[in-house]
Design a protein that fits this description.
- The protein is an alpha/beta fold and 300 residues long.
- It has one domain: Rossmann fold (3-Layer(aba) Sandwich), CATH 3.40.50.
- Helix content is 29%, strand content 17%.
- A 7-stranded parallel β-sheet has the order 2-3-1-4-5-6-9, sandwiched between helices. A two-stranded antiparallel sheet has the order 7-8.
- Helix 1 packs parallel to helix 5.
- The chain is globular, with a radius of gyration of 17 Å.
- The two termini are 28 Å apart.
- The relative contact order is 0.18.
- The N terminus is likely disordered.
Length: 300
């Protein structure tokens, strides 16, 4: 079992009393295929791209992300189970069949999430989406303002650091936001296939152009097996897109255990309980996600 698959199992096995039940997780991505591993837990679907009413995923990326967060593993007899298999999922399709999209669609998706967060019980937002364009992508960009507004509404916003490392200032937007929790890969030393390209040392590094240390935390993202957009099937994907839902799922477990935690409380808890890997701050942030430590009432 590779490190990434171990993290999924470990996150679930830490305390079987907690599965993310009652916690709504919104995923802005390519959509969601109604895989058996989601059961009846797709609570809502909103399609910004094509306006379709029923869940679908014409790329597969969003389904993969969603199952890392909350897949039950039913089609694999529990072998490929998500971190929080009891949470309910809110899928917001903002990317097309090629995985591309517009900032305006992401912003529309964020607006919809904010408007429906109470009705759907949304506590966490996963954004495994980013832009590395140097134009209009600074701290005052619309995307950063959009995720900041969601954070200010009380949502825990978790964003990928992007796959443009290992140079400085390679974290993608909106991961450069000072408020959100930005996630990098802990195992990007392994050469993997990221969207058709063989890559190594790809995880986005800080600081941002505004000299903000990024990312906040690392999680495994190499060769993660999760649901694909075919019946009862799984696929392998790699990148910070896969590391991000590891953290999102862990946060869903934490919010089930401590439902009164604010997004600021969650962020501080992640910082306090991360494992220092001894890497530069702008590579590892606070360190590696440790689900057992995160959920423990006390740690030594």
């Amino acid at each position: 079992m590779n490190r990434a698959k171990q993290m999924i199992h470990w996150g679930m096995g830490t305390d079987k009393a907690f599965t993310g039940r009652g916690v709504g997780v919104a995923v802005l991505d390519t959509g969601i295929y109604p895989h058996i591993d989601f059961g009846q837990r797709i609570a809502a679907f909103y399609d910004v791209v094509r306006g379709r009413p029923c869940p679908y995923d014409d790329n597969g990326h969003g389904t993969h992300i969603s199952a890392i967060i909350g897949g039950s593993g039913e089609a694999s007899e529990g072998k490929y189970q998500g971190v929080a298999p009891g949470c309910h999922l809110i899928s917001v399709k903002v990317l097309d069949s090629k995985g591309g999209g517009y900032a305006s669609d992401v912003l529309m998706g964020l607006k919809w999430i904010r408007e429906n967060k109470e009705r759907l019980g949304i506590r966490v937002v996963n954004i495994s989406v980013g832009s590395y364009s140097r134009r209009n992508m600074g701290e005052n960009s619309a995307l950063v303002r959009g995720v900041d507004a969601a954070w200010d509404d009380g949502l825990v916003v978790v964003v990928a650091a992007g796959n443009n490392g290992p140079g400085r200032m390679t974290v993608t937007t909106p991961g450069i936001s000072r408020k959100v929790i930005t996630v990098g890969c802990s195992d990007d030393d392994k050469e993997v296939n990221v969207m058709g390209t063989r890559m190594v040392d790809y995880s986005g590094r800080g600081p941002t152009r505004a000299c903000v240390c990024k990312p906040e935390i690392l999680a495994p993202g190499a060769a993660v097996i999760s649901c694909c957009n075919e019946e009862n099937r799984y696929s392998v994907k790699s990148g910070t897109s896969m590391a991000t839902p590891m953290v999102t799922g862990a946060i869903a477990l934490l919010l089930e255990k401590y439902p009164d935690m604010s997004n600021r409380d969650v962020k501080l808890r992640l910082r306090e309980r991360a494992v220092d890997l001894g890497q530069p701050r702008n590579q590892q942030g606070w360190g590696l996600l440790d689900v057992e430590r995160l959920l423990a009432d006390e740690v030594e």
